[in-house]
Amino acid sequence: MSRPEETPKAGSEETHGSQAPQGPVPPASAGDASPGNASPGNASPGNASPGNASPGNASPANASPGNASPDNASGADANLPARLGEERLAEPVIRTGMFGVSGTPDTSGYGLLRVHRVPPIESPQPYGSYFDEVADTLAGALEAAGIGFREAIERVVADRGELTFHVRRERLPEVAAKLRDDPALRFELCTGVSGVHYLEDTGRELHAVYHLLSITHNRRVRLEVTAPDADPHIPTLVGVYPTNNWHERETWDFFGIIFDGHPALTRIQMPDDWKGHPQRKDYPLGGIPVEYRGAKIPAPDERRHYA
User: Fold this and answer.
1) How far apart are the first and last CA of the chain?
2) Domain count, the chain
3) Most CB contacts within 10 A, which of 24, 68, 103, 121?
């Protein structure tokens, strides 16, 4: 009876193809090391210094960049996004859960979510791209009108390829007019006004964000203005950008920001007799129980949570 053929063992030149054994490669034994490579750590010729003929004479000081020390590795890890985000964990927790439900169990399934306060940031120059040119030109235009740059602009943020001017609300119309009229700026179009409500931003809870576009220079900037809940007034920009008429009405409708000087600040989305401003963070979830195929669905803030 013939014996089954044995599978030949792969040689050193046969271990890299599709038939190569899978899994980690076992370390070579000391007996397999060549005489020139006395220690396994010196097996790589890349570790040899030019002055040493034998690879076995390589010193640790002559190691290649690939053999970085643990100290150098930890320094590189400090710049990873995950490491940079650890600084925010030291900030106070401003909200738990997803939708800020209070007085009832969280119905979102995110009851353990902890939202930390975002510290205010300011970008130093140079900002990069065309941002420096825009900032310097705006500063010159304001100073020519007798307005200091810091008198009108609280801070400048250049982040993720976007430029934001945080403008003092009393100077908003003047800053917008300079951005529109200066030949080197020419931000002819305001594409909209966005409202934001930050309950934790004490004294600056309401934010109005304006997105400007220069058709002439193909550039974009953002203006951001704040107002406290106790005094929710921001000057209107309808005189500078007439299309803001509808955008400011919508922002007032949903957030309650009063745009002083607006020609007709009335509701545009909600019914005229609606109470409150439904996109504010302190607006109750509320809701009306709905009957669907015989099942009554309670309002969101009355639903049970799922453990």
Assistant:
1) 68
2) 1
3) 68
